[in-house]
Amino acid sequence: MSDPVLLEITDDIAVIAIANPPVNALSHSVRQGLDAAFAEIARRDDVKAAVIYGTDRTFIAGADIREFGKPPQEPFLPDLINRIEACAVPVVAALHGTALGGGLEVALGAHYRIAVPSARFGLPEVTLGILPGAGGTQRLPRLAGVEFALEAITSGRQIGAEEALAAGVIDRISDTADIREMGLSYARELIASGAQPRRTSDIAPEPVSPDVFEQARAKLAKKARGQLAPQNCVKAVEGALSLPFAEGLANERALFQELMESDQRAALIHAFFAERQVAKVPEINGVEPRAISRIGVIGGGTMGAGIAVSALLTGLQVTLIERDAEAVSRAETNVAKILQGSVKRGKLTQEKFDAIMREAFEASAEYATLATADVVIEAVFESMEVKKEVFTKLDAICKPGAVLASNTSYLDVNEIAAMTTRPQDVIGLHFFSPAHVMRLLEIVVADETAPDVTATGFALAKRLKKVAVRAGVCDGFIGNRILSHYRKAGDGAVLAGASPFEVDRALVNFGLAMGPYAVSDLAGLDIGWATRKRLAPTRDPREVYAEFADRLCEAGHFGRKTGKGFYVYDDGGQTPNAEVIDHIAEERAAKGIAAREIPEQEIVDRYMAAMINEAARVVEEGIALRPLDVDVTLLNGYGFPRWRGGPMQYADTVGLEKVLADIERFAQEDDFLWQPAPLLKRLVAEGKTFADLNNA
Ligand code: T1G
Q: Of 105, 281, 683, 684, which one has the fewest beta carbons inside 10 Å?
């Protein structure tokens, strides 16, 4: 591989070009190259300034995350950045693309910073379970103030060039396509004006009240409950105020190392790479997706309108079909309302909204308007009869090569494909509600789906900024199938002695955004009830069926929408519904169950063991390609705590032996629900992990 760092001397200026595609990460060879370049500059007396810039798409996007977990190699990044800062001549960082993490830290070690208008900046380390470990927590507070630095570092968010300029992170914005020239002309100007090196470490940080740190800690204890990195970020920034620079840097390093060794860092890095690896699906490798510019959506309800907005926001043309004029008008209102939400949140200008509604979006009752659609996504009522009617019409109307997709959340996509004369063009695109917000998209590949149709599904997902996961056809695909199992484990814990409220609390403490019973109330208890009734004829008589939720539904309590479910909803918020306890007590008595206290950890163990066990089956059956596909699904569609990496990462962290032992323990209570998955048993026997399968 050619040298990733090139040094050339032009007009007494040392120009350092970094060429380490795809994102100029600070790999070992890049660090060595930069170190050598600044050693060379220190040796020469004909150099009056230096410029660092990134070739191709971006400045440095950070340390090379692939090196994490391996023994660090010198030069270490903090030392390298100190060397850049110590340079005897002015150093200019010429910035474009994304200067993130160690990349921004390199720029902060330079003396002057100039950027193009589209450049973006950030210290996203906290999203990886670590913290800016190369001076970012010490230099950013000095340059931009403690409060700006605290917010930027604990959120990990990206910052635009204008905001960076206003905060003092960069000195100039220059609208040019020639990054090298931009840096050179700034350097020439600095030389001409006799400018000297301007070292950020020399700046005394503006003091702030200690309350600033206490408030940050308290806010993060709620917002980032259970997470280590945000709290260490606060401590590192605190050190920028309370310690001299060198000691602040040492404090940052110690806090960084502590995080590097944590399970949370391993889990968050796993999530980062899994969300990229999940799109690497063998069957579409090298397969050209079909062109996508016009999308058809059938159904203008919550899902259809959300899908339409998701496509409209990425510049696609959308034709939405409803059954009659009144439904068309309702659909238009739904779409406009969701888009207006983006305007209110500042994600869309009113002008753009008007342009979308005028030029990109149309709603109609005429299927004929779909004749030019490249992809049509059906999002109508979950009934095979209705789907049959829709797909028969689509088959007759749509152009050859149009992709016909169903948003069904559990119906058999093979059966839907068989309703058409073109099963090779049929696929499942299972969006999650609200479709314009949730990142997960399950791409359900039917038996006859053509590879380029699957590739088109992934291309559409990328266009919609979704995280797509390939799923095989089964009831519930990946996520909902696993969900039905861990929900049963929750019910089992309730029948054994826990209350639904204890189950919710245990899982919220574990890191879920909401407990399963609160989620059911939110979604509507009638939905789960309908599913259970649908599956009743096929239910195995050995299954221990929990009835207490049915009792609530029979009484008309469907959760938030009726003001009462597992919880009672009034203007005082939500409080446990005592009626539930009576239903459960009656059910235990009828089933002859003597309730016992279920410790919080056991609730978590039951929940996780059921999730992991069914996930192992889903992987073994090929419904999910790899364990990482299950992790990506649960992280992006089911609120699984990201800092635990997903159920399979969690299983590897606690050990598959423990998971199997838990399953065998619970099987003594219910040997139908708790049957160890063969894959899990095999991995334990072979001393392997789910991670071993990810890389197989
Ligand atoms: N290291 C290694 N590989 C990386 C990488 C990185 N930092 N960033 C991206 N990649 C790979 C990625 O896996 C993918 O690989 C390809 O590049 C394109 O990425 C000391 C310790 C820069 C905004 O957290 O946010 O610095 O799948 O698909 O959508 O304080 O990548 O093609 O084989 O995401 O255009 C801090 C992480 C590191 C930035 C581009 N930096 N990257 O997005 O492309 S920690 C980050 C991103 C650190 C210091 C600490 C995004 C991007 P493949 P992509 P994209």
A: 684
